[in-house]
Amino acid sequence: MNPxxxxxxxxxxxxxTFRRNGEGMKTPVWFVQDGETLYVSTMANSGKxxxxxxxxxxxxxxxxxxxxxxxxxxxxxxxxxxxxxxxARVNLLLDKKYGLMKKLFEKQRTSKGAQDxxxxxKINI
Length: 125
Known about the structure:
The structure is a single chain. This protein is α+β, with helices and mostly antiparallel strands. It has a single domain (about 5-125), classed as Pnp Oxidase, Chain A. It has 2 helices and 7 strands, in the order ββββαββαβ. It has helices spanning about 45-55, 85-110; strands at about 10-20, 25-30, 30-35, 35-45, 55-65, 75-80, 115-125. A 7-stranded antiparallel beta sheet has the order 2-1-5-6-7-4-3, sandwiched between helices. The longest helix has 28 residues, at about 85-110. The radius of gyration is 14 Å and the shape is globular.
């Protein structure tokens, strides 16, 4: 089975990033899948982004809202994207997938001055 199959029709992705000492940190996040690539939009100053900047090695699995894994962990590579065009496309895909909830969540974060960034995640196949 293709490791990407588990993410179809899922709302949450458990993203495990790694500290410099190798300790894994798991975070449930909203995501979209576009072809063979998964994308996450998150706060640019978050711990997961800092850890990905240090090392792009991650593990991912489909999960529930509270992070309970309901898929198989798979190894992947993640990187922060700087291309505004791709970021805009990811934002539109997230709007389509999460609708009003995303708009409300986004409004709350931007009112606090949060800056977002997009993470690209490619499964190691």
